[in-house]
Fold:
Amino acid sequence: MKIRTLIIDDEELARDRIRSLLSNESSIEIIGECSDGKTAVEMIDRESPDLVFLDVQMPELDGFQVLESISPEKTPKIIFVTAHEKFALRAFDFHAIDYLLKPFDRDRFKLGLDRAVSQLQSKDHDSTLARQMSALLSDLQKSKPMVERLVVKSDGRVLLIKVEDLDWVEAADNYVNLHVGTESHLLRETMSSLEKRLPEETFMRISRSTIVNVERIKELQPLFHGEYVVLLKNGARLTLSRSYRDKLNTLLGRAD
Structure:
């Protein structure tokens, strides 16, 4: 069976170059290409490719965010293609199939492609892929900066939600529920993981199940046993548990 392959790069010349290098590869079937991260997520979810040539810096979402946004069961083999060496070694040296620095020649490209084909045709392909991508995402989580946007897939669409627009977040089993004005959106991520990605000067976890944007807080009303009602400007009523009280008081400059 042929290896179903996507080409994702915001530069048309770069896509043309990869397509040309793949044209004589009998084991490869190019099933599509696109030029931005948002479309990349949609295309990977829809087409379930075996192999993706992925640029790092792109409009809408970068290559890292694309990886974080696709369904785990649809994660393909990845060969990164970029002009920037600074993204490479720490995160991808041992986890992605390869990291091609532009401009690359035919021999260097062939080396990465052969490595991908070999892994895809190996008997333990699925388990090897799972281990690689798990390690890749783990490294990304440790090293990535605070996010400015969150990517939510809903009804076949990909929504980009600005972090600054979030009012509060609540836990929902293996998801978090993002509250933005009158709308709410489910994101597949743990509270602990999301807490690490949100800017700590703006967002505070006030209980095991709640993170709040402190800019949205209107009033704190004391309850019993050191707990508080946190009243937001939009009327939402949350609970600050006693174990999180000191941290919030410090952030808001409050004194008991």
